[in-house]
Design brief:
heterodimer, A: 50% helix, B: 302 residues, alpha/beta, two-stranded parallel sheet, 9 strands
């Protein structure tokens, strides 16, 4: 798990709670619009959590007052709201909670504002029309993965019976 | 005997009628059995089984789901010990089978009889208004407050405590707030309850409970137990702003504005909808699990 969280939480601070939510809101909206963005790892990791949760809420539908309020706050613009409800919700009908993919890039030197190295990352929605990222997906044909898959199936069948 | 005399008089009357009159008037009694269009009504099923009791929107079957079956929020999610929660829920069901814990919410008036070996009659009865009902599983506690002879008294009970002998809901009410500790700083009439109060009629479970939306005015003196104006979310049923001066109002608004982002932080919210379905399925299976466990125990001991 990435380090740097305050004790007892699993969220980063980003300069204050209101500033943080506004930052994450812009990131989420941009991700929904372009389906692939490149930011620092910290921002991408936080935005990933919030996009997953937002799509989960949107899947519930607009009958719920809670989901209506949250979608209104997190996707205030019409084009993004319509894309979320008409495009992404049917796309992720079968996925339960995994709607995004996070790929980590090498460290890059930022001359301004601070002369420091930042780790950048690419955050994308699954099923996007862009060319795929060169990520090494898990190989299902290695011996370990084959045995693990068989063991999982056995557990699942045991539970059912 | 009565029937015979009546028929006799009837036949006499029909005989006395003239021919024309007989044709014109319809017969009073249809005496022939063959041409009857009478259909006997079906006998209604008066048996009510458990599955037929319907529960309205805000109310649930306590054997299947209750607020204390929801585990406390832990972030991240995989830090939980789910086995512990499942075992505790099974124990809750065991107690509920042996003792009927009624349904009540913060704001309702409840009377509790508790076993006490030092009391005359070996039990004590206390009634009052429920201030809060907090905790998970067997550790669920609720507090009753009553003002007797001008003295405010609060008692905290465990919902699943085996020392509770009887629990009666005298008045079922559901307030919008779940934490009514501000009633200590409000008009004592809300918590003065007659120790001999008679129970009011409970609404059936198929009826949705209306929320109590009146606003309780707190005392003028600012020496409250908590600074309610600095808490978020602000309580709905408490009216603490009517006595404020301008700068106090501005400060209270500043505090609520500082914390209002919590309403929209979706990752910190506790989503219970998925968990509720899992818990209901689990509790349905728990019935048979408990029966199995008890039967094996009996076999071993006998």
């Amino acid at each position: 798990m990435p380090r740097g969280y305050a004790h007892g939480t699993s969220f980063r601070k980003f300069g204050g709670p209101e500033k943080r939510l506004n930052l994450l809101r812009t990131l989420v909206n941009v991700l929904i619009k372009h389906e692939r963005i490149e930011t620092t790892f910290a921002k991408a990791h936080e935005a990933q959590k919030y996009t997953n949760r937002l799509i989960e809420i949107a899947k519930r539908g607009t009958d719920d007052a809670y989901s209506r309020d949250m979608i209104k706050f997190w996707a205030p613009r019409e084009e993004i709201q319509s894309k979320l409800l008409n495009d992404l919700v049917p796309r992720f009908k079968e996925n339960k909670s995994d709607f995004t993919r996070l790929a980590v890039l090498s460290k890059q030197y930022c001359a301004e504002p601070r002369q420091s190295f930042h780790r950048y990352a690419v955050l994308e929605l699954k099923g996007n029309p862009l060319p795929p990222l060169p990520i090494q997906e898990k190989n299902p044909h290695t011996l370990q993965n084959v045995l693990i898959a068989a063991a999982q199936e056995e557990m699942f069948n045991k539970k059912e019976s | 005997m009565m029937n015979k005399s009546w028929l006799f008089s009837l036949s006499r009357w029909t005989q006395s009628l003239s021919k024309e009159a007989k044709c014109a008037r319809a017969p009073i009694l249809h005496l022939s059995k063959r041409s009857s269009t009478f259909k006997a009504p079906t006998r209604p099923d008066l048996k009510t089984t458990e599955s037929e009791t319907t529960y309205a929107k805000g109310r649930e079957n306590p054997m299947l789901f209750c607020e204390e079956y929801i585990p406390p929020q832990v972030q991240p999610d995989w830090h939980r010990n789910k086995l512990k929660y499942r075992l505790e829920r099974m124990d809750c069901l065991r107690r509920r089978k042996a003792f009927n814990i009624p349904e009540f919410y913060p704001g309702s008036i409840v009377a509790v009889t508790v076993a006490d070996k030092h009391a005359p009659g070996k039990s004590i009865r206390f009634n009052g208004r429920v201030l809060y009902k907090d905790g998970f599983g067997l550790g669920c506690k609720f507090a009753l407050r009553n003002v007797i002879d001008g003295e405010g008294i609060e008692v905290v009970y465990h919902l699943y405590g085996p020392y509770i002998q009887k629990m009666e809901v005298l008045h079922l009410e559901k307030w919008v707030d779940t934490d009514l500790r501000y009633l200590r700083d409000a008009d004592p009439s809300y918590c003065t309850i007659d120790p001999d109060m008679q129970p009011k009629a409970l609404p059936p479970t198929s009826v949705e409970l209306e929320l109590f939306r009146e606003r309780v005015k707190l005392n003028k003196s600012p020496r409250w137990q908590f600074q309610y104006q600095k808490h978020w979310p602000p309580p709905y049923n408490a009216d603490f702003q009517s006595h404020f001066l301008e700068d106090e109002l501005i400060e209270s608004e500043r505090f609520s504005a500082m914390e209002s982002w919590r309403k929209y932080d979706i990752c910190r919210h506790y989503d219970v909808t998925e968990m509720k379905e899992e818990i209901v399925a689990e509790m349905k299976a728990n019935k048979s699990r408990i029966e199995k466990a008890d039967s094996t125990l009996k076999q071993e001991t006998s």
